[in-house]
Amino acid sequence: MVTGLSGSGKSSLAFDTIYAEGQRRYMESLSTYAKRFVAHVTKPDVDFVFGLSPVISIEQKTLTSNPRSTVGTMTDIASYLNLLYATIAQPHCPRTGEPAPSRSASQIREAILSLPEGAEIALRAPVFKVYGEELDVILTDVRKKGCRWLIVDGQAVDISAEVGLDESTVQNMDAVVDRFVVSHKHEKAIKAGIANTLLVGDGLIQLHVVKGASKAETARFYEGVCSATHHFVYGDIGPAYFVFNDPESACRTCGGLGVDKLTHPELLVPDPQRSIRGGCFVREAFKYNPDTWDGRMMYSLSAAIDFPLDVPWKDLAESARHAILYGIEPKKMPVRTPPDAKVRRDEHEGREVGFHGIARRIERHYRRYRQRGEASSRMEEWLDKVMVERTCPDCNGARLRATRLLFTVAGKTIYDLGQLHFDELHAFLGTVKPTGRSADAGRQVVKEIRGRLELLLGIGLDYLSLNRRAGTLSGGESQRIRLSTQIGSGLMGMLYVLDEPSIGLHPKDNVKMIATLESLRDIGNTVIVVEHDEDTIRAADHVVEIGGPGDDRRSAQVPAIADGSVLLRQAIDCRADEAAPGERKGAGRSRGTREQSEVDRRHVSARHARRDHRCVGIRQEHAGERDPLQGALETAGRHADAAGGSRRRGRC
Amino acid sequence: MVHDSIQQKFMAALDTLVDQVKVDRSVLAALLCGSLSHDIVWTKSDIDLVLVTVDDKKVEQSDLSLYADGVSVHAMLIPRTEFRKMVEGSVRNSFTHSFLTKGRLLYTHDPTIADLCATLADSGRRDKQVQLLRAATHALPAIDKAHKWFVTRGDLDYTALWILYAATPLAQVEVIGAGRLADREVIPQAMLLNPAFFKTVYTDLLNARKTRDSVQAALDAIDGYVAGRAPMVFESILDHLRDVGEARSCREIEDHFKRNFDIGGVTTACEYLADQGLIGTASTPARLTKKSNVEVQELAFFYIGPS
Ligand SMILES: [Zn+2]
After folding, report:
1. What would the CATH number be for the domain defined by B2-119?
2. pTM above 0.80, yes or no
């Protein structure tokens, strides 16, 4: 526990010295190659630091504005859920919604080989329409993956020929990926064919017996391995299938962000008092210039549907405003040159052209930008000026491709689970009873998830959900989540540095927080906390006070190091008498006596740390090893020294 | 007669090799490709053999040179899945496809490979459209260069060289347009189909002394040839611009063709079509780089024909 007045250098000791040195040493241990990828850490201004464990800092800052980070990804629970869904979820047919089996590739191969020798089987992969994408793009993609034939609503179509497919009427498409004659001598070909089909079908295969098997044999085959109506089977589904940060699994429209952007009229026209000619649009969207093609189009539109260019935007007819923003499709308009154009150009004058609108054009640019998968801050900036975020219309915020949401555990999709509050999720998982051949593995995963949820519930985070974006968490919330993740990870021998974990906590939750810190210590770690909160200080094994009472706020002068909460009075304004022993649950007993007897500023070395202290603080005991606390304390002393203050030696 | 005896020597060597390979269960099929399958062999010929192998991590796609009874054999090992993709996928637009198409299946252990080989010859209309666009788009820059050197410098040799560069893609247009598969050696194919044109732009430029008139004639012939076929070879571009209805920037058009047909460089084709009065030229506001804060006008095109 490091305490003291603000500005006394508490954080400086905990973070800039102990943590920084730990980090620096870790970096030193990296290979020269790895070092090139990490930022350089300068050596803290200390003489030496002794006995330092690997350090992890858990700060208050919301570290990430990464939209791909969620509570689920922060806590690792998302990974366990992915595993759970890959293990025990029930998949469904993408067309009928009826249950479809999930098998390993080798199980599918075995099933195929169980057909009579000489039977012919085709492996097909379902092809799905992509939101906002032309059919041509999808067909090109299928061709690139090596398929020529598509079964479109039951009809074989050669896609190397002109495809007169009407996008609006096409329902079901399956690409024929491979065809085999069943025989053990073709086993390797069948194996490769299955793998290839799963690639084209994104985890799905449609099995189709072409000929060579009796009706009964065919029926038995279908019944054994695939769904009833469309004969689908999911193959080799692993946890990655459910990871929205994996481009192969992410929703194609939003790329796994769950949100999409849409133009907003009020952003496009910030000042409706102005006219089009007077510059009512944001510069990023449209600027009227009679000498550009854009200007010519706007003038042509005004002539075609009859609206003036110099009347305030707000006074234009609703139909005109709509046409300007969203176009006049499928109508055309004759091209007209504005009378105020400096250069008269008669080419194309009077030709019929279409006009799709200013807003549509921006949305088109946005889609192109997304499709290219680029990340440009300038582009984002530009888009933010004219577009607003909305829930992705393709995945409805689920971030995943539709096929992933066909997997359910007790009727809920992985997205549904992510929407539940932790207390609800914990209760729900309690009702999940895995069955079938993966039941054991499933039970293990459920247990693991519930265990981690309990840690989160234990620090008062019952109201959070896994889908919550990390960027929307408060600093305290994200600190506590990271804390619980550390406990969940079960690492030992670490040194954790925390910054005021009590901030923003309800008193009842603070108790939980302290208990969490205690469990971090109990599993064999050292915890350094910078804190002002009384309860937390009381709970510490050791307290380091920097710049104590009567110090005239001179910073970083004297580190006072005390055993237990001996410094309490000074640190918390001499209210020692209020703290009766045993008042706080699990924090009293062995401490009470000392608390009353010792109030002087005695500095206690780490050697005096006692195993039975029921309080949080700097402590870790490794048999036969030097106590790292001693190092930390020496650091503390030297830190103060380095800061230029007169120093009272901590060790007696 | 000499040819016949060479042919016999080759066939005998091939038979021996095939008998050996047949026993190898990791080879599913053998296709005889190259000249021995459809053309005249000569003493320096070698045998081109495509061996379709089982799909196995241990069997890689590779080329190797074999030796059979004094004849060298160039063998390409292609795993079955890859072979399938070559035959059925869009890779079939490539040279490999025509190489395979002219091949002859010698034997196979897998009847589905025989079925695949049977479909090799027919090329779909959509593929044909894409191939035509690709060939024509490829010819345009060379034609432009030829014009430039003729008009600005009057350099007959260099102009002729650029015309000869254009001859191959133009021959592809001719052959594909006639519904055939363009080979690696496409000019001799095209000369049979359109002797007059290829005499002017190819044979005459190579064999006769170049005069201003003969080079001018070649340029005129090419211009006429491309102009006459523009609506056919650039059909995909016209279709696209008609479908979208309004002006599209070069970058957008390029993107579209890259994504939809895997073809780059269509801006040149658009410029050509605009010069021919088949599409209109417009402009759209654009920024030069991601970092630019100044707006410039980017070239754009729109459809002007009947809808
Ligand atoms: Zn989405």
Report:
1. 3.30.460.10
2. no
